[in-house]
Amino acid sequence: MKILTSIWIVCITVMIGVGLRVYDVEPLKILRLKTFDYYQQIQPRTITSNHFVIVEITEEDLTKYGQWPWSRNFVAEIHQRIINQKANTVQYNILFSEPDRLNASSFVETQNLPIELKDKLLLIPDNDQTLAQFFNVGDAVLMYSVKNSATDGKIKKPNIMYKGADPKGWLFNFLGVVNNLPIFLDSAKGVGVNIMIPSIDGTVRSQPLLVNTDQGVVPAQILETLRVVMNGRAYKVVTAQDGVREIYLNRQFVIRPNSNAMININFADPNTIPTISVNELMTNDIDLTNKIVVVGLNAAGLSTLKDTPLGLMTDMQISVQAMDTIATKTDLQRDNNLNLYEIIGTTILLLIFLIIVPRLNVLWTAGILLLSVSSISYASWYMYSSMNVMADASWAVLLLSITWAHLTFNNFATQSRLRQQIKKQFEHYLAPDMVAKLQKDPGLLKLGGETRTMTFMFSDIRGFTPISEKYKGNPAGLTKLINRFLTRMTDIIISNGGTIDKFMGDCIMAFWNAPLDIKDHANRAVNSAIEMQKELKRLNKELKKEKLPEIKIGIGINTGEALVGNMGSEQRFDYSVIGDDVNLASRLESSSKELGSTLVVGEKTKVQTDGFKFHSLGTIKVKGKTEKIKVFTVK
User: Fold this and answer.
1) In this predicted model, what pLDDT tens digit does every residue of 314-330 receive, in sequence order?
2) Helix, strand, or coil (residue 231)
3) What is the reported pTM?
């Protein structure tokens, strides 16, 4: 039980939690995605561009106009109707990969007819030819579908210019595409891949703008539609070392997808997208002036609904959502650096929790947890709602809560053990009711000690941050380096009769003349500092050979009175010192860098030593002192 409530177990829990986030394991990915889904459900976007209309082929349309696929002549009528209503562009989420079964030529080839009759029938224009002619009249954008085999025939090659490295390595790869008939490829103003790539949990949240196939890089159908609308003649794809950066549809309009050329869709309520059936289109005068019309299937057995953050949607709805997101520049951004910022920020908070939670009352720590969780959640929500940036709060909130709960449980367990310890230590010396009082309030125990004249030392590594930066990906290596340094310095202090008070990261606090009497405590402290500098030179020679960063230190020494004894709290006693002269030693160490000297010695220490040649460093002003302090170093 004691092991489980150790602070080290909490540290291990924290390290595991951070490690899981660094490797971004699947459960954390799903949790993050679901969090952003929830944001969109709280505040769904509204389709603001007002440029899109969906024409869907419903079950009622099939009942009225016949089973699917319809004759290409009828599709031509639909297209003509849309164009007559002054639509700008028509995107078909429908494949035209096979000839119309009602084509005269197809009929002739399958029948044993007289040659004269065959010749007359072949003079009748094909339905496919009719539809292709209508596509020429009104801007039509067709689709490819991807498949796991090579493409049949040649596709309509997009005009793509590249600036930077070839983007194929960052794009989704497919073996081929399901092609359209050549007659439709020739007549369409644009053709692109229509593909919905779900996230790890099967939900569609983003859409690729470029994919790689056996025919080369192919743009998405939505990208082709926007290019046609904007009269773009070619794409310009800008890449960097970390992937795709920008895609230009024309000289003015630029899209900034993620490195894999994916756009994160900022979903809106699908009910805000104007939608009509084919029957409504054919029987009513509907103003489609300058609209982008998306035509597709929404009938049972002929279409598949996709799961999105706002529920099930058709291909056409997702296409419109994606195009409107791009057109209004409201795509949800998640820069790769956000991962690093989230990990660093949360780790710092976790370290703060590890420091303060064991030392504060549970009500205070609960307030700190609530403040931290609320601040993180609000910052995440604000960045989403105001900046369209997806900053993850889920992992931080989860791990901070787990860490707080573990530390709080440890505090209760420690207090319980302390009560048992008090009972064990005092039950033979105090009345049972007094022991019960001490158990209830360990603060009744007298803490403190005696006042002594002592010498204090603080030693700290200078430039620790640059050293730790070099070990950013190797925390074990940094720990090994610091332990190596601290061990050598500690050996010197102890060999000179000093007492190690504590280690504070890379800082050593030590004192002389307690608990044992040492008359020449000032001499021993200064001698320790000299030996520490010599030992550091030897250590740095070793580090240089090992191609490791060299270490520089600052040392502050002061002599004076302090209270020494059992200091601590209800949870833990500690043999330590407190006093103004102790604080001054720390201030002297902090001033070593500014003074340009490794060792800074206070005047009281200089007076009480002999055998050393001191050099004056002048006077300094330290926090908490009204008068300047004379400081020295040893030559």
Assistant:
1) 999 999 999 999 999 99
2) coil
3) 0.64
